Structure formats: structure tokens, C-alpha cells
User: What shape does this take?
Amino acid sequence: MSDPRFYKKLGPFKLHELVSFVCGEINSDKFNHKIIDDIAALHLAKPSEISFFDNLKYRDQLLNTKAGACIIKESNKNLAPKETALIFSDNPYLDFTMISRSFYPEQIHPKSVSGFLSDEKITNNSNIQKDVILEKGVVIGKNVEIGNNSFVGSNAVIGSNVRIGENTYIGANVSITYAFIGNNVIIHQGASIGQDGFGFSMSPKGHIKIPQVGLVIINDDVEIGSNCCVDRGSNQNTVIGKGTKIDNLVQIAHNCVIGEHCVLAGMVGLAGSTTLEDFVVMGAKSGASGHLTIGKGSQIAAKSGVTRDLPPGKKWAGFPIRSLNNWKKEILKIKKLTDKRRIKEGE
Assistant: This one.
């Protein structure tokens, strides 16, 4: 249940109204006018709330749920309580997302956190559109461009010559330098964009810093989590493709090129000159050693280490990286050997 002090909620809705937001259907007409006033997790849901079920791991939660309605695959309908209204869906999580958006449309795009707006006028040749919102403490360099309906949070620093597109959100304490940012981008609190890449010429006498003279290019519809670091390129640009989503605490080194609609979970690390083709997914704490390409649609399991080029469309795990199936077989064999040894030693 959301706290009304923080979140504005629409509704309540009749169940048939919620179904109109998705592609599902209700399991019985008798539930059409059932009133639903909020969303909730299965194990916390009340009779006036809607939830979803999409993983057999949580079947006990489904069996014991008090939810008034549940979005579910038709093949799992017999697992649900009889008194719970069901919305049959091919993709319950996606449809739950769409229904959540109908209750909380204002949470789709971040808004001002402090509410304290700057009353200072920017007079350094920057082009700030009239409807741009700047919170107190924002620092804007020379010749900055910020497009319509964009927002810059408290104490953010926007370096000289940076361009930021329309409808873009820059959170509090974000630093952006040497960068061009597209439209509909979200950069959460504390992220650093455009700082030096980690480049040194190493020698017995010491390590000589290499000038980093590239940019960071962030395309439309990208979201970057809190405290991420995206280094600018050294002799080419660091690029993040359209629609890519990046979790908190991710490191993207200089010259990396990330394709469209990739997903990088928390604490992913990409060393310099790593290329991710479109729709690559990397699990938490996975990483790439740099100067390699991960093929389109690849899926990298959590804590995996990519040390070579990977072909498109496959699942990978382990360190060094190998196919997910081979990794599972190796783990199983190791377990069997360990079990045999314990039996032999009488443990």
C-alpha cells in the first residue's frame, strides 16, 4: 500500500476498466464490477487490491493470497483461490505493470524531490527553455542547452557546452560534463557522466595520464540509476543506445558502445572499449574485461565474467564465461564429486 503523503493515486477502478488497459480477460462476468483500489504483492494484498502471479516459486503465496484480483496465465488458474477474480494474461508481469501505471501515472517519470526551485537567472549564453525546472543549488556552465519540459535537481552540475534534450530528468547531485543527452532520458541522483576515462601509459618510471578527448552520447529513452559512472571516451565517444536501462552502481568505462534496449543490472562493470549489441542483458555484478563484443540478445548471468567475444542470442554464465547449460553441468558434476568424497570419508 502506497503512502498518500508521497504518492498520488488514481482510482478506484472496476475490474473491467482495468482489463481495458491490457490484453487479458476476466475469468467470470460476475467479477466485472468488482472494485479495485490499489496494487499489491501477492502476500500483502487485500480483498480490494490486485496482484499478479508469474513464477511457480511463489505458488504458496498465490494459494494463500487475500488479493481481490490476480493477473495470471490461464494454465495456472487452478492454483488460485476460488474467491479471487482472475485476469488471464500471456504476460502477467507486463500487464500488471500497465495496470500499475493506471493507478500511479505520476510515478512513470520522476518529479522534483525537494520542491525548492532556483530563483537565479542563467546569463552565460546558455539556452534554457522557459519551462525547464531548475532546483536550488544547480550549477549551469557556459553554452549549455536544455530542452522543453526538462528538470534538473538540487546541486546538479551541468558542465559547459553540454546539451540536454526535451522531457529529460536530471536528479539531485548529478554531474554531467562533455556529454550530449537525448530526449526522455532519466538520470537518477548521484550519477556522474562524462568524467575522465581510466587511461594511463604504464612504465617503470610511473604511469602517464592519457588525455581523454571523447564525449558521452546518451540517446533517447535511456534510464541511468543512482551513483552510476559513465566515463567519456578517450579517442572516440562512449555511447549508450536508445531505450537502454541501467541499474544503480554501474560502471561504464571509456569508449564503450552500448546498443539499443540493453539492460544492465546493479554493479555491472564494463571495462574500456566493450561493445554490447542491441538487447543484451547483464545480471548483477557481471562484468566484461574490455576490447570485446557481446552479441545481440545475449544474456549474461549474475557474477559472470566475459573475457572474449560472444556470439548473438545465447545465455552465458560463470568465470571464465561459458554457455549456461555447460556451466550448470559443471556445477552438477562438482557437486556429485564432492558428495562422493564426503561419503567416502564418512562425513
